[in-house]
């Protein structure tokens, strides 16, 4: 495998980030005589996969409608694709079949597809039909980079849970609001713009009732993602939030409530046509919420506070391996102080340093005067 071509396929795959869910981001290039003759990436779930688009591109350039008209077209070509080609009939026909039909003799693959309907079956199909398959060396820097762009998809396929990112704008002393509850704004406009774009790459954004009450956030998608239907998930135990809050502006919202909600509130939410789901207020109930969301194909969830919700997710994560996966903290050069002002993570916390959540990868950069700190707790 010539890494330069797989790197190009990876670069193309990246273009799909934030658009392809519940499908993974995939890029493909076709190489002939040492040169790239076609390249493509998967743009959206339900649309054609990268490898099929690349094959079609070559045929278009050659002016032929079916490969039968020029059976040798792909004989000396190598297909580079970042993810194992699918082998099942999903929203589109199996790519492995299209690759064999095109006449490829060699395919280089970035990683095996963990999705259980594929999971090696695409590779098996290719090999059974005389195609040489070369997989990117597991553990190599390139293989890790290929996995890194599809972390939510991999976690979801392997565990049936969504990938969770906790985001917060905070002061240097870890506060997300003052003692009077004021939180606008701790981090800079530049940080908030960055955070909104990171949110927009996800499938859903989750907040607690305290945050909706205090800030009335819009929780919308922005930038190139602005037309995306980002789902808003609200934890509102008592269903006490006014329906005039912006999170309830359209159907893209799911509200979880507990036994604390009275029948009047339940019927008001129902009358407003809001999707409400009963849960229990304990940590087991919270885990069930995430399992439910994963079943609904939400792979990538952005947690936007507040302190109580962060604390519960943290507490659950210290008990339940693999729940919280990444933090994205925008740290402003301010001190807020006060034992009554809210800390970024409430809840019970851990009693021993040995039980703290540790990061495997930490990246930080400055955004104006703020520090953006990103850390991964789990790598899939
Ligand atoms: N700087 C930042 O980045 C940032 C981000 C977000 C928020 N904030 C600030 O944080 C503050 C809000 O934080 P907070 O800790 O007070 O509130 P919160 O975490 O936003 O919400 C807590 C509420 O969520 C509900 N809830 C929690 N777990 C639940 C579950 N398992 N099922 C159903 N409902 C559940 C409960 O609603 P009930 O009220 O119905 O019991 C609970 O009181 C605000 O001041 C806000 O401005 C800052």
Index terms:
380 residues, alpha/beta, 9-stranded mixed β-sheet, 11 helices, 22% strand, elongated, binds NADP nicotinamide-adenine-dinucleotide phosphate
Characterise the protein shown here:
This protein has 380 residues and is of the alpha/beta class. It is built from eleven helices and 14 strands. It has helices at residues 3-14, 50-62, 95-102, 121-128, 141-148, 151-159, 189-200, 209-215, 263-271, 283-295, 307-319; strands spanning 27-32, 35-41, 77-83, 106-111, 132-135, 163-171, 204-208, 231-235, 253-257, 275-278, 300-303, 324-332, 361-367, 370-376. The strands form two sheets. It has a nine-stranded mixed β-sheet with strand order 10-9-8-7-11-6-12-14-13. Bound molecules: NADP nicotinamide-adenine-dinucleotide phosphate (NAP).
């Amino acid at each position: 495998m010539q890494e330069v071509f797989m790197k190009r396929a990876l670069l193309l795959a990246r273009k799909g980030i934030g658009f392809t869910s519940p499908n993974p981001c995939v890029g493909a290039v076709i190489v002939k005589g040492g040169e790239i003759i076609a390249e493509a990436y998967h743009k959206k779930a339900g649309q054609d996969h990268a490898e099929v688009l690349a094959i079609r591109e070559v045929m278009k350039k050659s002016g032929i409608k079916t490969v039968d008209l020029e059976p040798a077209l792909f004989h000396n070509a190598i297909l580079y694709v970042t993810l194992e080609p699918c082998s099942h009939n999903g929203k589109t026909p199996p790519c492995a079949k299209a690759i064999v039909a095109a006449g490829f003799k060699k395919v280089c693959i970035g990683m095996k597809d963990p999705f259980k309907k594929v999971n090696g079956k695409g590779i098996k199909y290719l090999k059974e039909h005389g195609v040489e398959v070369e997989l990117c060396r597991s553990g190599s820097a390139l293989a890790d980079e290929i996995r890194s762009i599809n972390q939510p998809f991999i976690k979801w396929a392997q565990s049936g849970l969504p990938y969770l990112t906790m985001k917060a704008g905070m002061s240097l002393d870890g506060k997300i609001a003052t003692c009077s509850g004021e939180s606008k704004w701790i981090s800079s406009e530049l940080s908030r713009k960055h955070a909104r774009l990171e949110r927009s790459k996800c499938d859903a954004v989750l907040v607690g009732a305290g945050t909706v009450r205090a800030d009335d956030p819009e929780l919308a998608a922005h930038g190139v993602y602005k037309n995306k239907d980002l789902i808003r998930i609200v934890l509102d135990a008592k269903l006490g939030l006014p329906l005039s809050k912006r999170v309830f502006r359209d159907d893209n919202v799911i509200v979880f409530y507990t036994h604390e909600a009275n029948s009047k509130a339940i019927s008001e939410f129902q009358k407003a046509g809001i999707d409400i789901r009963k849960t229990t207020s304990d940590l087991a109930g919270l885990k069930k919420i995430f399992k439910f969301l994963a079943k609904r194909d939400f792979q990538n969830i952005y947690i936007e506070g507040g302190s109580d919700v962060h604390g519960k997710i943290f507490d659950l994560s210290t008990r339940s391996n693999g729940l919280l996966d990444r933090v994205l903290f925008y740290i402003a050069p301010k001190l807020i102080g006060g034992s009554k002002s809210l800390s970024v993570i409430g809840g019970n916390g851990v009693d021993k340093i040995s039980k703290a959540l540790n990061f495997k990868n930490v990246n930080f950069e400055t955004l104006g005067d703020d520090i953006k700190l990103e850390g991964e707790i789990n790598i899939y």
